[in-house]
């Protein structure tokens, strides 16, 4: 009788305990999940600024192409105080607002100089843009620069404050 009690006790103990392999697998899965998720939580400022810089660059490129392709005049209005921008033509208009608290630091246009507040209007005609533009964005310590080449209509995004 005593032997059957011992067997029952041992069997019950083995069923309720974790093996070393099971513990190692669980720790591995938790480590792998942490390694994949935690980097996404860091550097969100930089990603947000880069994302907004790309949106602005894409908008400038689109307006340039549309103005030349349709032989129409487009206006791009950048409001540094409200951290928003828009474009408009006879038939089309669109408004954008910065996301994730990204802000305009300044805009440099040769004819206007460096502008850090107020509104800037850029004209895109049938021949394209009249002059190059540098747009500086920031959030916390992260800064990005959008450079727009008025000759070929290319917009590039650079990390940091570029002149």
What this model shows, in words?
It is built from 3 helices and 10 strands, in the order αααββββββββββ. It is of the alpha+beta class. It folds into 2 domains: 40 residues; 116 residues, 3-Layer(bab) Sandwich (minor pseudopilin epsh fold). Strands 3-2-1-6-7 form a 5-stranded antiparallel β-sheet, with helices on one face. A hairpin with a 3-residue loop joins strand 4 and strand 5. The mean pLDDT is 85.
Main β sheet profile: 5 strands, antiparallel
Please name the CATH architecture of the largest domain: 3-Layer(bab) Sandwich
Percent helix range: 25-40%
The domain count comes to: 2
Give the CATH superfamily of the largest domain: minor pseudopilin epsh domain
Low-confidence stretches: none
> Which class of the largest domain in CATH terms?
Alpha Beta
Strand order of the largest sheet: 3-2-1-6-7
Number of helices: 3
Mean pLDDT equals: 85
Brief synopsis:
The chain is of the alpha+beta class. It folds into two domains: 2-41; 44-159, minor pseudopilin epsh domain (minor pseudopilin epsh fold), CATH 3.55.40.10.
Features:
minor pseudopilin epsh fold; 2 domains; alpha+beta; 163 residues; 10 strands; single chain
Strand and helix map with partners:
Elements: H1 2-16, H2 20-41, H3 44-70, E1 74-79, E2 84-88, E3 93-97, E4 103-109, E5 113-115, E6 119-125, E7 128-129, E8 133-139, E9 142-148, E10 155-159
């Amino acid at each position: 009788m005593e032997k059957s009690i011992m067997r029952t006790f041992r069997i019950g103990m083995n069923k309720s305990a974790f093996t070393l392999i099971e513990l190692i697998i669980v720790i591995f899965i938790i480590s792998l999940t942490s390694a994949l998720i935690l980097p996404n939580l860091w550097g969100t400022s930089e990603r947000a600024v880069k994302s907004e810089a790309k949106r602005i660059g894409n908008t400038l490129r689109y307006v340039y192409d549309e103005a030349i392709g349709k032989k129409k005049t487009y206006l791009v209005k950048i409001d540094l105080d409200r951290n928003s921008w828009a474009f408009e033509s006879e038939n089309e208009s669109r408004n954008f607002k910065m996301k994730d608290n990204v802000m305009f630091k300044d805009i440099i246009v040769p004819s206007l100089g460096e502008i850090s507040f107020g509104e800037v209007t850029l004209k895109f005609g049938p021949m394209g843009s009249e002059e190059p533009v540098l747009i500086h964005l920031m959030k916390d310590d992260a800064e990005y620069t959008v450079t727009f080449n008025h000759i070929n209509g290319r917009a590039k995004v650079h990390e940091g404050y570029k002149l």
